[in-house]
Amino acid sequence: DTIIFALIERSQFKNNSGIYEAGKMNFKDGYKGSFLSWFLKEVECVHAKVRRYQSPDEYPFTENLPEPVLPPLDYPPVLVDPKQININDEIFDAYVNTVVPGITEHGDDKNYGSSATRDIECLQALSRRIHYGKFVAESKFQDPKNHDEYVRLIKEKNSDRLMELLTNTRVEELLLKRLKTKAIIYGQDLSSSSPETNGSASGANAMLADAEKAAEERAKTRVDYDLVVSLYRDYVIPLTKEVEIEYLLHRLDTN
Predict the structure, then answer these.
(1) What is the reported pTM?
(2) pLDDT tens digits, 4-21
(3) CB-CB neighbours of 56 under 10 Å
(4) Residue 106 contacts residue 14 (beta carbons within 8 Å)
(5) φ, ψ at 61 (rounded to 5°)
(6) Which of 102, 98, 100 is closest to 120 using CA atoms?
(7) Using a CB cutoff of 8 Å and minimum separation of 24, what contacts does 220-226 make?
(8) Of 210, 180, 183, nearest to 196 (Cα)?
(9) Over 80: is that where the pLDDT of 255 sits?
(10) Of the candidates 247, 236, 35, 13, which has an alpha carbon nearest to the alpha carbon of residue 125?
């Protein structure tokens, strides 16, 4: 839900492609990267100071961040070397080059700060969702049903067989169906619904039927539900499983 809502929020602004182009903005400090990269670095510097990236499910997109100004928190050791794997570069590339052009109208509305703010929210939500694959992988590894098989395949470095073992096609299909439904519902422009009802159950049902009939049409005005589904099918699910495989391949390194 967080990702879908974040995409809807970003879609209200035009593409504003200039914020993704290195050297497009004239920074007074001489910074040569893109506006989004600069903004993301500044945001992550603040978040790093308040311990965001000490959490095992949070991963920064930028490097050389400042140390926290607060004492470290004591997180239970659920994962083995949780910070070793970070695929945010792949997430950033897919988001900027595929997702943004798909959910926004072409053009430049000058809302650079607002667009970048929404971009960062989308990127952070996607990163958290995809890197959560480490927790999923650990849970699957600990499952007595397949534990010995995982150990054997990890020792063999058999990533193909590991992928087969951890993949549940039926669950993925159900996930994509739920996402389509949510994207259609959340993408509706409810302000265009007629407020007139007769106060009866039939009036409420008529309004609901009208909303359902127009749902797909309205969803297109805010975020394309097909793009949400393809985002998960082509990027989120594969990248999550990539994280799972990488985590499992290193799961026995400390043993």
Answers:
(1) 0.84
(2) 999 999 999 999 999 999
(3) 17
(4) yes
(5) -90, -20
(6) 100
(7) 220/187, 221/187, 221/189, 222/8, 222/11, 222/12, 222/187, 222/188, 222/189, 223/4, 223/7, 223/8, 223/11, 223/103, 223/183, 223/186, 223/187, 224/102, 224/103, 225/180, 225/183, 225/184, 225/187
(8) 210
(9) no
(10) 236
